[in-house]
Amino acid sequence: MADDLTTYEENTWCPGCGNFGIFNAFKNAVKRLEMEDGISRQNILITAGIGCHAKIFDYLDLSGFYSLHGREIATAQGMKLANPQATIVAFAGDGDAFGEGIEHLIFAAKRNADMTVIIHDNGVYGLTTGQFTPTSPEGFKGPSTPFGSPEEPINPLKLMLVTGATFVARGFSGRLKELTDVFVQAMKHKGFSFVDVLQPCVSFNDTYKLYNSKVELLSQPAANVDEAMRLTEQTEKLPIGVFYQAEAPVYHENLLGNWNPTVQRATRQQRLQSIKSLLEKA
Amino acid sequence: MEKELFTFIAGGTAGAGIRKAGAVAGYIFTQMGRRVFEMEDYQSLIKGGHNFAVVSSATYPIQSHYMKADLVVATDKRSYDMHKDHLTSGGIMVYNSDAMKDQQIPNGVGVAFTTISRKYTNSELRLGVGAIAALAAAIGMSKDELTEVIKSQYRDAENNVNFAMEIYDAVAPQLYAKFALKKSDAKHLPMISGSEAISMGAVAGGLDFFFAYPMTPASPLLHYLAGHAKDFNIGVMHPESEIAAINMAIGAASMGLKTMVSSSGGGMALMEEAFSLSGMAEVPVLAILGSRPGPSTGVPTYTEQGDLRFALNQGHGEFPRIVASPYSMEEAFYLAAEMLNMVQQFQTVGTLLTEKHLIESRMNVDIDVEKTQWAQPVMYTGGDEKYLRYKLTEDGISPLMFPPSEQVVKFTSYEHDEYGLSTESPEMIAKMHEKRARKEEALIEKLKQMHTVNVFGETGPLIFTYGSTTMSVLEALRCGNIQARVVQPIYLEPFPVWEFEQFKEESPIVVEQSVMGTFETLIKDKTNIKAKASIRKYDGRPFDPEELAQSIKEVL
């Protein structure tokens, strides 16, 4: 699938993997942002955790940082603080965002870090051969839970709503157009945007049939958090689209004001001058 | 006769203003043209307990506090009990007579600190001011001079001045001008802590953004840099954990910022995975490791050098690491800037290893800010068809470019090809390993051109030490009147073995604050030089120069 957003790296996702849908929808979203919103691809920086999802970093010909398992959201916040003009997207698996690195997810939402998190939520650790994750259903059998997972799964959207995320959405890797729309809106949102993408794993947790029969596009976001919370509890139908969106002050502006650390760096002489005057007072 | 060396101890509960009194005493001595070393001893609690500040001063560049004091001001009974044996001959104990009724105190001057302070609001908080008033009387300052000091150093000057005058009047009959201190016309040098020295040095060297989670005794760096972020025009963030701090610092560094983190052993242990990330992704970051007695939570507010082996081996896997440890506040200032430059030049992680004793003690410094290094990485200047983040070069250093940029820049934690895409190719894995190994060689070549080891003294027996323990050793030699050569490696990784060739036929005394002698082992492993004697202290307290001098004499 050669195009100018794809690198030369050999694609090693399983045939039929839900990651292809996320990959294609994301590339479409980047092209749309370039055409419709004047956001250049050079200004879109990506980061990823570790797992099947994260291979998207090697396949997308965009700048950024292939981070550690669970740490991509911390890496992303460092990148954003360094240069607030950049649009930052963190790709994460349900294992690393809700397991190993959940602290960073919660705090990024809490402080309304201006960035987008895209969760490749397949309910399984694919690359380590099929263990249960924080979003696997109770009873899920994998190599680490041969008799079934003894834990209830977490509800990612609900978690993000109570934590203070200002853009909460769900997508399905099998619905390319709707997923592209959600990605575009998430990346344009000023503040912390969270997209939980339902993604079948054809090798360890094939949910295509289930999701195809259940997903249903929301006509519009919920009017408030309470209503959005109720939407996240639906199980008969699985709503996709934007659940909730709000405006709120963003972290980098709260911390730094309008100062851009990369562009408005203090010169050596300015630094030496301020140190001299502090030493004179010491 | 005028006294050359003079030591003042102020003791009291936490919250009594004792630490502030230590700083103000330092200010008074500095104004007399004297050089000061102040050590603060405090417990891991907020109110109560026992805090004390030891302020030693002299007209020469003093490098340690002394535990034997000429004047002790004990604002509570616990302070009296702790310091009653810490008087020099001729030393005077000023004690709180409210807390010590009916007791005969030899060489003691009783003051009703509690009764007098109760006339004022926040009476507890003022006891430190009382200690300063007693000091002023003892060294023969006038009431006007004391008033000026209080006004310039304390808030709520009116009440503090009134309180100080009452204390002064109460002690003066027995205490006035008991000590005459030698003065000098030397210029008044600023008095700063090690944490301030490191912070200012890093800013001078180009620090753009600092990320840290609080942990004693590294927190003073966070507090100082956060307090001065606007003066310096830098960013400072206190995130959710040490893991967040280091990963954010590395993320920000991948955008071209010069970043730094700090913690003590436990927090640094949490950062380990990201240290290795810095090594693989070749993203520079500087870490300040402030040691306290370990292992584990250990003893938070005291000092030790038990983290040496840990510091040398930060991060899993093979990659170049840089570890250096300053001996003094001045060296800490310059070294912070130098280390920031080193990690930028070699695109890896560096650790500035230090101890509570350096971070939280204060001394006068003679700093020329113009002499600091300015951190400058090797930047890409074009010429390639496509930018290669991990271009294979002769010295292993691939020129940097930072996004957002026309060309794609890919940083990664995976083994990678030159462009930055993951690889499992055996040839590429080997080539990238060799590239990072060549950086290590280039780093060693660079260190060979640099000043990596301090040697103090020209004749006499040989003493090896490092970090702030060096100051203790140097002061011990002075007070014990011992001629010796003191060798202190500033850089510990890569270890400057070439500088130790000259000592290979000798057997040094090794002094360190460690129970297992990690530094001695390092010396032996790296240089095959075996110690003839070891002096180790591991009770959380820094060496006292007189005791250390005695220990050195015993093994000479």
Would you summarize the structure shown here?
The complex is a heterodimer of chains A (282) and B (556). Chain A has 282 residues and is of the alpha/beta class.
Which SSEs are present, and which pair or pack?
The complex is a heterodimer of chains A (282) and B (556).
Chain A: H1 19-37, E1 44-48, H2 55-59, E2 64-66, H3 72-82, E3 87-93, H4 94-100, H5 102-110, E4 115-121, E5 124-125, E6 131-132, H6 156-163, E7 167-172, H7 176-188, E8 192-198, H8 208-214, E9 215-217, H9 225-232, E10 238-245, H10 251-256, H11 268-281
Helix pairs in contact in A: 1-7, 4-5, 6-9
Chain B: E1 6-14, H1 18-31, E2 35-41, E3 48-58, E4 69-74, H2 77-83, E5 87-96, E6 108-111, H3 113-117, H4 127-138, H5 143-153, H6 157-175, E7 191-193, H7 194-205, E8 209-212, H8 219-227, H9 229-232, E9 235-237, H10 242-253, E10 259-263, H11 265-281, E11 285-291, H12 308-312, E12 321-324, H13 329-346, E13 349-355, H14 356-360, E14 362-364, E15 410-412, H15 426-448, E16 453-456, E17 462-464, H16 469-480, E18 485-489, E19 491-493, E20 509-512, H17 518-527, E21 533-536, H18 545-555
Parallel strand pairs in B: 1-4, 4-5, 5-6, 8-9, 8-10, 10-11, 11-13, 12-13, 17-18, 17-20, 20-21
Antiparallel strand pairs in B: 1-3, 2-3, 2-14, 7-14, 12-19, 16-18
Helix pairs in contact in B: 1-4, 4-5, 4-6, 5-6, 7-8, 7-13, 10-11, 16-18
Which terms would index this structure?
heterodimer, A: 282 residues, alpha/beta, Rossmann fold, 8-stranded mixed sheet, two-stranded antiparallel ribbon, 11 helices, 18% strand, globular, B: 556 residues, Pyruvate-ferredoxin Oxidoreductase, domain 3, 7-stranded mixed sheet, 18 helices
